[in-house]
Request: fold
Amino acid sequence: MNGAQSLIRTLVGGGVDVCFANPGTSEMHFVASLDAVPEMRAVLALFEGVVTGAADGYGRMAERPAATLLHLGPGLANGLANLHNARRAHTPIVNVIGDHAMYHKGFGAPLESDIESLTGWLHGWSRTSTDPASVGLDAADAIAAACTPPGQIANLVVPADVSWGDAGAVAAPVEPPAPAVVEDARIAEIAAVLTSGEPTALLLGHGATRERGLMAASRIAEATGVKLLVETFPARLERGAGLPNIERLGYLAEQAQWQLSGMRNLVLAGAMAPVSFFAYPGKASVLTPTGCQVHALADLGDEVATALEQLADRVAARAKPRLQPAVRPAAPTGMLTTQSWAEVIGALLPDGAIIADEANTSGLMIPMTTAGAPRHDVLTLTGGAIGQGLPVATGAAVACPDHPVVCLQSDGSAMYTISALWTMAREGLNVTTVVLSNRSYAILRLELQRVGTAGAGPKALELLDLSNPDMNFVAMARGMGVPASSATTSEELADQFSKALKEPGPHLIEALVPSAL
Reply:
């Protein structure tokens, strides 16, 4: 058994049986070994940003890691933006990164690079295998590292001669550490804050945005009157009828400050204290009000949902959660607007859907129009690095083939990773993509004003314009094997969206929507 075979068999034995890949020469022994390990599903993507984003979407929904297969330092570099999003989502991922044979590295080959510096940028776990006999052990450690709460990226660099060398061996799985249990003393401390009578907000983050956490938090709010908020970009948020509908913290600093105004206490449950996404002249970076005390109920890596349940039992023993009723918007008519297209989605969203949300400025109404839709999951742009939506939808569809995946995708960021459509077609994935085409970087028009620039002229505005020529997403999708159509009215979008959901495989709808800004 060579090193590559022991690596793949160890991955499969540790529960990592999907690999999103864009390989090169240094990874060919890994590729050749796939036929010997049929349990490993290999999914080809045409760009490494799709590979890493798909692994992120898979991990968020499967709650276990996928592997990636990346070609040397440049391949890893191409995938870093979506790995940044995955890092912020605390998604478990095992990156397998090929490298030159160890004896070849000193000759200055064209693709030689400092891979270790790139992996360090991800603030996860990294190791370079140096022996075919130990690469299986390294893989088992990588899986355990990726699954260490709250989840992280594990990078395993595998030189080519380690892959092709003999004496490989399959390693037994390594048990990752369990989430830390929040001590009773801390729960009692937070209970005293919540029952103090002072204005208090409870901010839900990683580990608190699924059913258990939402239900417990709602009970707490009903009993104590605290204000509930979910972090701005949760990795995975469960929503819909029968669940508490909790407002997300605003993206704009002014909105978040308004939501937190008057608070004397802010309690964090798997979240970080909110800060402004960017610095603006004359505006604050820290968004908590002056004099507001910040308290941590549960940190990242803790048993957050359990801590919320224990806290609810202490301060809200008889309280019931406030649940969202099953109320959908009426089917809209007329030309598409930023409101009407969102109403179409809210009116037709199927039960058990997974929404990959990168609608950006065009999607401001989506949280409101889908609140009473059937139960669904929302995967958001955790790290702010655009180009996530299509790849994350791809990975989510691989993880959950029995769930309809709906990708709500703005046009500008779609172009970063548009080749994900090809992978969707190749794999027959049930992803319905709605591209919101306003032919501009609309968010940057707003930011141009907010940063205090004076009198932006035509040359500046041209850099934010996506027309001249207009992009044709229908033609692009069809060219990659995805059935596609366009809609300019609410009736057209509703008809096309309904049909796409009923048919197997991927579909794309280009919705021509004027800018909200």
The mean pLDDT is 95.
